[in-house]
Design a protein that fits this description.
The longest helix is centred in the middle third of the chain and has 129 residues. The chain has 173 residues and is mostly helical. The chain is built from three helices and no strands. The chain has one domain.
């Protein structure tokens, strides 16, 4: 329907034809402008719908990416926890082995110390025995050498020889 091509019947007592024509021209121009604007708005609307659909696709992709990232993060965190637990268990086992070895070494050292003390006591006893026998021999030699001297001197000399076996052993050790 075209407003500009619209014609009216003529009547005797009608409206002023020029005024009606001016009015119709204005109306026609306004209507064409509205149609153009409407067409432009439709084009803009279609373009906006296309962009909206693109944005929805992007949003969906972002949501999927976010979900995958969260899943990956969760898996990574879980894997890290498992590795940490495994490392702790391995460290505990190693620590236990080290402690056990240290206990064994301590027992070996304790036994070695006990054996050394026993050997020391045995050596000390042997030394005391040797010193005692040597002291006895020395006393006998003194007595034999003293026969030439008088009996009173023998007793004095024997008293002068006072051998402390414990003191000799301590000096040796």
């Amino acid at each position: 329907m075209s407003i500009k091509n619209q014609e009216f019947r003529k009547s005797v007592r009608g409206f002023d034809r020029d005024e009606v024509q001016v009015f119709l021209d204005k109306l026609s121009d306004e209507f064409e402008n509205l149609q153009k604007e409407n067409e432009q708005l439709k084009k803009d609307f279609d373009a906006a719908n296309i962009k909206l659909n693109e944005f929805r696709k992007i949003e969906k992709n972002l949501q999927n990416t976010l979900l995958k990232a969260q899943e990956s993060s969760t898996k990574s965190l879980e894997s890290t926890r498992k590795q940490a637990n495994l490392m702790v268990k391995e460290a505990e086992i190693k620590a236990s082995q080290i402690l056990e070895k240290a206990r064994e070494n301590a027992n070996e050292i304790r036994n070695a110390v006990i054996n050394l003390r026993e050997e020391k006591d045995l050596v000390v006893a042997k030394l005391k025995s040797i010193i005692s026998s040597q002291a006895h021999l020395l006393e006998m030699k003194v007595e034999n050498a003293g026969e030439e001297k008088t009996a009173s001197k023998k007793i004095e000399d024997a008293k002068k020889i006072d051998i402390n076996i414990d003191e000799i052993v301590n000096k040796i050790l």
